[in-house]
Design a protein that fits this description.
The chain contains six helices and 18 strands. The protein is elongated and about 90 Å long. The protein folds into three domains: about 50 residues, no CATH class; about 60 residues, SH3 Domains (SH3 type barrels), CATH 2.30.30.40; about 170 residues, no CATH class.
């Protein structure tokens, strides 16, 4: 077949116009694309695993340890090898959680697994860290489940605890000034009444917590009763009952099941644990008291 020289020449001229400028240099848009494709592919092969790790770190959730000496383990088991041990307040990166029991974490350069029970969100950590007005109150509420329950109550009510101002700004933005600050204070020694009581206050055969919260600014007090049964993670703490307390009657203690108290004007044995509210003065003064009792449907207050 005889080639048409003019047609062939025209074809190469079009190729030149498309890919090359008149002075012989490659057109940037086309040549750069064709040149970068294999380079990018090689980079992807080499850097893919690194990019995956970086992406995993970026998506990790920051959490804090709320127990002393929490173990970092090699696997999701209490029998797994311990590869590290970390103090209260240590920040960790959480990559994944398993059955609300274990978390895949990184602490610095070390990676492994921690019990999810002792890890909380930044907001919950700072709420817990600032909720105790003195050391005794912290000792009285030593279990993690009760600390989480109270902190979750704060979140539900829009309260805050005594945390640094810069942390409040970081957590709540411009709304931080509108939040009420509440804390728990306990009396030293062995008083008859104090600011915390434990018992089965709603009849579900689980140990609930009753606590007196004090407003840092107004000094007003509030009785709050919380259940921790059948809750996990940050959902700990179902509010069973709350009431504002009179200024002089702001201490509580457990009224155990079977004890005799005045119910509707008559002395009766109470069928369930209750909460006795009163002062902490000398018992010989015979201070009047109030009994907070669950009747199967709601909490009621009975004068004593």
């Amino acid at each position: 077949m005889k080639l048409n020289i003019d047609v062939l020449k025209d074809f190469f001229l079009k190729i030149k116009e498309k890919f090359f400028v008149k002075d012989g240099y490659a057109r940037t848009s086309s040549v750069v694309i064709f040149g970068l494709v294999p380079i990018l592919f090689i980079i992807y092969l080499l850097m893919g695993p690194v990019i995956k790790v970086v992406k995993k770190d970026i998506n990790a959730e920051p959490m804090f340890i709320i127990s002393e000496n929490l173990n970092l383990r090699s696997d999701k088991s209490q029998n797994a090898y311990v590869i590290g041990n970390y103090d209260y307040g240590t920040e960790v990166k959480v990559y994944n959680t398993f059955d609300n029991k274990w978390a895949e974490v990184a602490v610095g350069r070390k990676k492994g697994y921690m019990s999810l029970e002792y890890l909380v969100s930044p907001e919950m950590f700072y709420l817990i860290d600032g909720m105790f007005g003195n050391d005794l109150a912290q000792k009285m509420i030593s279990k993690t489940i009760y600390k989480k329950a109270i902190a979750n109550y704060y979140i539900q009510q829009g309260y805050t605890s005594d945390m640094p101002e810069e942390i409040k700004k970081e957590l709540y933005g411009h709304k931080w000034k509108n939040k009420e600050t509440w804390q728990i204070f306990a009396i030293e020694g062995k008083p008859k009444f104090n600011s915390v009581a434990f018992g089965d206050f709603n009849g579900d055969r689980k140990t609930d917590i009753a606590v007196v919260l004090t407003n840092k600014k107004s000094k007003k007090n509030k009785l709050v009763v919380l259940s921790v049964a059948n809750n996990t993670g940050d959902s700990f703490g179902q509010t069973l009952f709350s009431m504002d307390l009179p200024e002089s009657w702001y201490y509580i203690r457990t009224a155990p099941k079977g004890a005799k108290y005045i119910i509707n004007g008559q002395p009766k044995n109470i069928p369930i644990d209750g909460i006795l509210v009163g002062s902490n003065r000398d018992p010989s003064l015979k201070d009047p008291q109030e009994l907070v009792l669950f009747d199967g449907k709601q909490f009621k207050i009975y004068k004593q």
